[in-house]
Design a protein that fits this description.
With 185 residues, the protein is α+β, with helices and mostly antiparallel strands. 23% of the residues lie in helices and 30% in strands. A hairpin with a 6-residue loop joins strand 4 and strand 5. Helix 5 runs antiparallel to helix 6.
């Protein structure tokens, strides 16, 4: 007599779903290449090169409507379908499946991407060499996650003073030893 294999439980299926990993490779401030696959009145749908399974878009109205005088001027800014463009990851939304990436093609963002710190509200630089950190917050209660942006010092200042190891790691994560400021040592 052979034992029957138990069917997957609902809990196990949720466990598998909540760890969608394709979008974790993309973080705000990261430069990417994107291929334009469609136009919409609000912007363009793109595929991030190397991450084609993750949905992505560029909200052209949000990015450029204040700098143009007419809809025609805005439409002229839309990259042509089929072209590959430089972009920077602005947001990764994982609140509900599927994950969705919002990109920016603003020249200033391509040069140095900044986003407000969720602790102090001042702009944090998320481009390489910047003072910002990206944290993904997840729960044991189910799928989805939320991204929190922070200055290194804002996070470190909120870690209990007696937890010196975690404070030091917050100040140094992602940095080479020679790039750490003397004040962070």
């Amino acid at each position: 007599m052979t034992a029957k294999r138990p069917e997957a439980s609902v809990e196990m299926m949720l466990f598998v779903e909540r760890f969608e990993t394709a979008s974790f490779a993309l973080i705000p401030g990261e430069r990417v290449r994107a291929k334009v696959v469609g136009h919409h009145p609000w912007g363009v749908i793109v595929k991030v090169v190397g991450h084609e399974d993750v949905g992505a878009s560029i909200d052209m109205i949000q990015q450029f409507s204040r700098t143009v005088n007419s809809n025609e001027e805005l439409l002229d800014l839309y990259p042509a379908v089929g072209t590959e463009i430089d972009a920077v990851v602005e947001q990764v939304r994982r609140w509900y499946p599927p994950a969705w990436v919002r990109l920016s093609i603003r020249p200033a963002d391509l040069e140095s991407f900044t986003w407000p710190c969720d602790f102090c509200g001042a702009w944090a630089t998320l481009s390489p060499g910047g003072d910002g950190l990206v944290m993904d917050v997840r729960s044991n209660d189910g799928p989805g996650s939320h991204t929190v942006i922070s200055h290194r010092t804002c996070l470190a200042d909120r870690i209990r003073p007696e937890n010196t190891g975690e404070r030091a790691r917050a100040l140094r994560v992602g940095r080479s030893p020679e790039s750490v400021d003397a004040r962070d040592r």
